Amino acid sequence: MRALTWQAPGRVSVETVPDPRIEQPTDAIVRITSTAICGSDLHLYEALGPYMAPGDVVGHEPMGIVVETGSEVTHVSEGDRVVVPFNISCGTCAMCSQGLQSQCETTQVREHGSGAALLGFSALYGSLPGGQAEFLRVPHADHGLIPVGSDLADERYLFLSDILPTAWQGVRYADIPRGGSVAVLGLGPVGQFAARIAAREGARVFGVDPVPERRALAERWGIEAFPQGEEAHQQILDATEGRGPDAVIDAVGMEAHGSPVAAVAQKVVGRLPDKLGRPLMERAGIDRLSALHEAIALVRRGGTISLSGVYGGTASPMPLLTMFDKQIQLRMGQCNVRSWTEDLLPLVEDTSDPLGTGDLVTHHLPLEEGPAAYEMFRSKNDNCIKVVLEPGRA
């Protein structure tokens, strides 16, 4: 089959690789019809090079048609249309039973002290082949796969794999009081959805992003959008009587603009050999923390910061004096996708499309154009906000 593979920092290519096969009786094989590029894929593209190997198949936002199942799979059948969550969870362990599928004890990658295995996301999370490919093996398919209807376009369902439940969890973790306010830092795909969800629930939403096209898209959904910088910070303070918003959602993470020293560190570490790069990743503060520091400065005293953006450094400096003095509550973590499926399915199937799943994708491209799509998404060229690759498209 054809698949998009990591080759070196800043370089991916579409290659012919072996077809996946059933390895465990709980597996299923899915023919991929749509697979999106996520901001987290950019971490693999550059910063997490020491945990990648040439030929690794990437991608963790896929959906498609079941073509084969293992002998113990009863929840889905051949021919079913399904969405594939990015984290692999068993559904029955102590963590899954608490709705913490991202911490699944059955698939935890204990070698690296990591949580549940993730599709297409480096040795840190199990080195499982990802979904930017023609076919995908899905372990623990009975619990993981989300059966969906056949009438609506792929993009109405596709984001149930990651960014929509990630945004939903980010809003839940933000704990915005009724009629309260929230600032969303970063208006990429997760930030767009988080802002829309919060606004739909009655919050006053401020969005901050340096890219004009992203701000314009958010404004169409009633978000008060600002460019990045001190002036925006002051305007949001002025709009909240000088206190700051009740909550801040950091939808940026380790790839934040600013933090020039950390930006150089990420680039250098990402290109080091594994034996040198991995210890630095595991012991050094390499995150670009400007978004997180902005969240800490902006949120009101006693407010909540919700981290949806991914961070990767283990020794990143934090202003604990300020955090303690402001009595900030901080929540974070990989999304527990299956915990939010039942909340989100009715919304994505609503004919009015209240979260705008059809208003986010800017580019539909064949899988073979994946390398160019990565560069476009990274550079934000051609007004790119979200790219969907379609393996069956010529």
From TrEMBL:
Matching SUPFAM superfamilies: GroES-like (SSF50129), NAD(P)-binding Rossmann-fold domains (SSF51735)
Cofactor annotation: Zn(2+)
Signal peptide residues on this chain, from the entry's feature table: none
Superkingdom of the organism of origin: Bacteria
Alcohol dehydrogenase-like N-terminal domain sequence ranges: 25-142
CDD domains per UniProt: FDH_like_1
Domain Alcohol dehydrogenase-like C-terminal: from-to ranges: 189-255
Keywords from the UniProt entry: Metal-binding, Oxidoreductase, Zinc
GO molecular function: oxidoreductase activity; zinc ion binding
Keyword NAD: no
Database matches in Pfam families: ADH_N, ADH_zinc_N
Family in the record: Belongs to the zinc-containing alcohol dehydrogenase family.
Record-given protein name: Glutathione-dependent formaldehyde dehydrogenase
